[in-house]
UniProtKB/TrEMBL annotation, chain B:
The keyword ATP-binding does not apply. GO terms for cellular component: molybdopterin adenylyltransferase complex. InterPro entries: Beta-grasp_dom_sf, MOCS2A, Mopterin_synth/thiamin_S_b, ThiS/MoaD-like. SUPFAM superfamilies: MoaD/ThiS. This is Molybdopterin synthase sulfur carrier subunit. GO terms for molecular function: nucleotide binding. Keywords: Nucleotide-binding. Belongs to the MoaD family. It comes from Candidatus Accumulibacter phosphatis. It holds the Pfam family ThiS. GO terms for biological process: Mo-molybdopterin cofactor biosynthetic process.
Amino acid sequence: MTFPGPPDHESHDRFPLSRPLPREGGGEIRESLTRFPYMMVRVQEADFDVGAELAALRRDQPQIGALVSFVGVVRAASDDAGVSEMTLEHYPGMTEKALAAMVSEAGRRWKIIDAIVIHRVGRLLPGDQIVLVAVAGTHRGEAFAACEFLIDYLKTRAPFWKREVTPQGARWVAARASDDQVAERWQD
Amino acid sequence: MMLKILYFASVREQLGQGSEELPLPAGVVDVAGLLGFLAQRGGAWEHLAEIRNLRQAVNQEMVGRDAPIGAEDEVAFFPPVTGG
């Protein structure tokens, strides 16, 4: 098995977008920005079908031998209170670029074949899916590592903000120091 | 030639404003200078620069307060991110 060369990192901030950003409700970057044949990042209000997304990622890529995915879900309880609903805000344009840059970075660090990130915004209820990160590789080891890296980086670097409603009222979720510590594991 | 400024999440709520456009104020050359200019408005604006862990981006890239600002740039202020 041979792997194509590393992505062109100098082009991160000016890659062509497949459609104009920002778009109302979210946006999508979907093109061969790197060596990835499929590579997609998408921000949307709508729910997503994990099975359909993984099938699309795998399609026509017979070299894939491992597919690792992470799904984040809205918890019914925060640190000290019940959560009845949550609203996710993002920075249209910058969010999609940040996610695409993370996927490129994962491709630089690990021999993975492809990856997708889908993140929802807007109003969400407990049990709702928030985020999907999926990484395809030849073998599981690199795919697991890249998937963990992507969700760790996303939580500390992608511009999303959660506002949750509890019995005590609505509040912006505070960033967790533990998330920063987890993400720091990946520093070079 | 307008500077675009965006405010997100709790920062937007504290300021009561999500975005604005203005000509680059005279003498402002970096993010810190812009924060100083905005503080002159008084009220919540005086406290913008002091928000704990305030993050800033110029043209959709995270930067420090010493990052330069040009007349047509897009600058954003927001709290630490909490997605995922």
